[in-house]
Design a protein that fits this description.
The chain is mainly α. It is built from 15 helices and two strands. The chain has a single domain (64-355), classed as Na+/H+ antiporter like fold. It has helices at 12-31, 37-52, 65-80, 85-90, 95-118, 123-129, 135-144, 149-175, 195-214, 220-234, 244-259, 267-299, 303-310, 315-325, 329-355; strands at 2-3, 9-10. It has a two-stranded antiparallel sheet. α5 (95-118) packs antiparallel against α6 (123-129), α5 packs across α15 (329-355) and α9 (195-214) crosses α10 (220-234). It is globular, with a radius of gyration of 19 Å. The chain starts with a strand and ends with a helix. The relative contact order is 0.18.
């Protein structure tokens, strides 16, 4: 184990083994044209190893959280490339769906809360586990409120995993095309970046993350770079986005980062949480489908984009799917930023209630 500053612990051999497993599985899934293959292949392989307690190449699974966090800005910068002055002018047409989201988030939070309560979870675990966004902030609030942090963490990660597995499968079933597959849409810049482009994009990623952290924004590693990249593209300072190979590597890192979270998880708790999370997330996805049917004509967006905008997945993961489909990326992203703000605000209000 290499000891780095700022609590950045690193086991190089274990990390190499973990990335070898995740990368190989991701490439196999990508070559097989599976939906979002790089991410889901890496996730499936590392989660399986973690739950079974396997040690690939004799090494424990290891992918430090700081490494995953350091790659998330790549998705933020890529997503920001979809914004333009024309998009800003069009955003006024989204008011109806944004207003609907303000109603939707408390409703699906309440639905998830009822599912978890009926499943026998205590009120605090049910409340924070049902929050439809802001994983890091929600788990922190659960800890400060005296809730079972392990249960809330598992429920929140299962929400992400169920969503990012189900959504690409739904699109595969409906369209016959795999999201993010080898034959899928372009997910990043195909042309070479100039040195000036590289500097601007790097500044957007690093500077945006730092500024968002200083401002205590939720999902700072994604939202900060996204805002800076959107501004840089809107002002014409840069025209490119991160290359496809870097976006692909980021998918592998994100998938492995989710998978290793199941290391040491109690199997009985995991089985119980999985059933409840699948039911709660299924209700959320059904609600997202209903919202898409009702709102897509009103806001002038494709039904696919509205469904993605209301699906309760992670901002980075939903942005990856939107990038892959090339479907109103800005529309989807703006709604997910609002979803996170609403979900975290609701969780903070609940935390004050539970502590009183």
């Amino acid at each position: 184990m290499v000891r780095l500053p700022f609590r950045l612990q690193l086991n190089p051999a274990a990390l190499a083994a973990t990335l070898a497993i995740a990368g190989t599985a991701g490439l196999v899934a990508w070559a097989a044209h599976l939906p979002l293959g790089l991410l889901l292949g890496a996730l499936g392989a590392t989660a399986t190893c973690a739950i079974a307690g396997w040690r690939p190449f004799g090494q424990p699974l290891h992918l430090p959280g700081w490494l995953r966090t350091s790659f998330v800005p790549v998705i933020g910068v890529s997503t920001g490339g979809a914004f333009s002055p024309e998009i800003a002018a069009q955003a006024g047409e989204w008011l109806a769906s944004l207003a609907a989201l303000v109603l939707f988030i408390p409703l699906i939070h309440a639905a998830g809360f009822l599912v978890y309560r009926m499943g026998g979870l205590p009120p605090a675990e049910a409340f924070f586990g049902a929050a439809p966004g802001g994983l890091i902030e929600t788990v922190d609030l659960a800890h400060r409120s005296g809730a079972d942090e392990a249960m809330v963490t598992v429920l929140q990660f299962l929400r992400l995993i169920v969503t990012i597995v189900a959504v690409p499968m739904i699109f595969l079933f409906l369209t016959g095309h795999a999201v993010g597959s080898a034959g899928g849409a372009q997910m990043a810049g195909a042309g070479p970046l100039s040195p000036a482009d590289v500097l601007v994009l790097a500044a957007c990623g690093i500077g945006g993350f730092w500024a968002a952290m200083r401002l205590h924004l939720p999902a700072a590693q994604m939202i900060g770079p996204l805002i800076c990249s959107a501004a840089a593209h809107g002002l014409g300072l840069v025209h490119g986005v991160p290359p496809a190979w870097l976006v692909g590597l980021t998918q592998v890192i994100l998938g492995a980062g989710l998978g290793v979270r199941f290391l040491g998880a109690d199997h009985a708790m995991l089985r119980r949480a999985s059933g409840l999370a699948i039911l709660a997330t299924g209700l959320s996805l059904a609600g997202a489908a209903g919202a898409a049917l009702l709102l897509h004509a009103l806001v002038g967006e494709d039904i696919t984009a509205v469904f993605l905008a209301f699906a309760p997945g992670g901002l980075a993961e939903m942005s990856l799917i939107a990038l892959s489909l090339q479907t109103s990326i800005a529309f989807v992203t703006v709604h997910h930023v609002l979803r996170i703000v609403l979900a975290v605000s609701l969780a903070k209000g609940g935390a004050r209630w539970l502590l009183n």
